């Protein structure tokens, strides 16, 4: 799945488990139900997946507004992490880090 893009963590393990158990067997409602708590806790991969479920209407009623909101939330989470990492590196490089 997206393992190459995400650091190993329990949330990633759970996402991979959901894909193997439910997505590949087309049990989309169960897959959605497994991703939702992870997304609500702010895990970006799960947020993006919830957006996809809403976009395609898999396991839930198709809802483009919810699809956009969840996908945007994921993008903002990732962007914030990238920005923070860049700022820390810049500060460290210029002798202003902690």
What's the quick description here?
With 98 residues, the protein is mainly alpha-helical. Helix content is 71%, strand content 0%. The protein has helices at 10-23, 28-40, 44-56, 64-93.
SSE class: mainly alpha
Helix proportion:
over 70%
Distance between the termini: 36 Å
What is the averaged pLDDT score? 83
Give the biggest beta sheet: none
Which consecutive residue ranges, at least 5 long each, have pLDDT under 50? none
The succession of helices and strands, N to C, reads HHHH
Could you give the count of β-strands?
0
Lay out the secondary structure.
Layout lengths: L9 H14 L4 H13 L3 H13 L7 H30 L5
Helix pairs in contact: 1-2, 2-3, 3-4
Characterization of the model:
This protein is mainly α. The protein is built from four helices and no strands. The protein has helices spanning 10-23, 28-40, 44-56, 64-93. The longest helix is centred in the last third of the chain and has 30 residues, at 64-93. The protein is elongated, with a radius of gyration of 16 Å. The model has no long low-confidence stretch (mean pLDDT 83).
Q: Which structural traits does this protein have?
A:
98 residues, mainly alpha, 4 helices, elongated
